[in-house]
Amino acid sequence: MMDLDQALRMDPPGAPNDESTVEQKRSYEQWERSNRMCLMVIKNSISVAIRGAIPDSENAKTYLEYVEEQFKGTSKAHASTLILKMLTSKYDGVSGIREHIMKMSDMSNKLKSMDMEISEGFLVHFIMTSLPASYGPFKINYNTQKEKWTMSELIAMCVQEEERLKAE
Q1: Distance CA 148, CA 145 (A)
Q2: Given 48, 73, 98, which residue is the final one in a domain?
Q3: Burial code of 115-148, b = ≥16 C-beta within 10 A, e = fewer?
Q4: Residue 96 shares a structural domain with residue 64
Q5: Looking at the structure, do residues 21 and 67 belong to the same domain, yes or no?
Q6: Which of 80, 112, 102, 98 is nearest to 158 (CA)?
Q7: What angle do CA 89, 90, 93 make, to 5 degrees?
Q8: Measuring CA to CA, which residue among 74, 114, 120 is closest to residue 104?
Q9: Which domain holds residue 57?
Q10: Could you report how far apart the first and last alpha carbons of the chain are, in Å?
Q11: pLDDT tens for residues 4-36?
Q12: Do residues 101 and 48 touch, judged by C-beta distance below 8 A?
């Protein structure tokens, strides 16, 4: 069974010549087939409009590097959008506090995958600032405590507070 991703994992072996061994020729043929298959899969997975903006290459690994280059600017724009969304997110009282916190956490995780990590402590404080005025006493209570909450504790405490506020 041939490794279809061999061309992505390994550098191409030297092109065979008259003095190459059978093993060297077989290795090159396997890599060449893997490379062709990878290029077919990659190119057919990208829309034609985007594919036209990517420089062509006969090497699958190089072609993927070109694809990555094309999307670096896009990931920066996406990061800016996520940061702005986090800065402007406020709990509206409609969707549920757990969902609000999970959305904020999800945005933080997406930023982390772009090498823009937000510490858990900062995220907890940041989410606390996104809560409305009705959570004022709750925020004061949190700020007077010495221990810091984890995200799980924040969710549990906020859900409890949400239920208390709804009961009033």
Answers
A1: 8
A2: 73
A3: eeebebeebbbbbbebbeeebeebeeebeeeeee
A4: no
A5: yes
A6: 98
A7: 135
A8: 120
A9: 6-73
A10: 67
A11: 888 888 898 888 898 989 999 999 999 999 999
A12: no
